[in-house]
Design brief:
Layout lengths: L5 E5 L2 E12 L8 E4 L25 E3 L7 E3 H10 L6
Antiparallel strand pairs: 1-2, 2-3, 4-5
The structure holds zinc ion (2 copies).
Length: 90
């Protein structure tokens, strides 16, 4: 029920998500334990969007875009986002 546990489609694959689902940070080499809630999501949409990959990361590997619609992004997505939004100075 609610956001604790649900299934989403990502890159043609169904995965379990929600803050009740424990996982490991998806940054290669990082072993931080996280959950698949929105707080660990790259972007704001489970499954990804135009600006986000939909991956789940620890706090060290999420970067603030300072845009509420975009949310926090992983290293790869924030790099792409900043390239397209050079006025965003972080
Ligand atoms: Zn990403
Ligand atoms: Zn990490």
């Amino acid at each position: 029920m609610g956001y604790a546990h649900y299934k989403i489609w990502r890159n043609g694959q169904q995965i379990e998500a929600g803050y009740g689902v424990t996982a490991t940070c998806e940054e290669p080499g990082c072993r931080a334990e996280i959950d698949r809630g929105l707080g660990c999501l790259c972007g704001t949409e489970p499954g990804g969007s135009e600006t986000s990959c939909g991956g789940y990361y620890c706090g060290q590997h999420l970067y603030m875009s300072l845009d509420g619609d975009v949310g926090d992004l992983c290293g790869r997505c924030i790099t792409a986002y900043r390239r397209e939004h050079p006025h965003v100075d972080v």
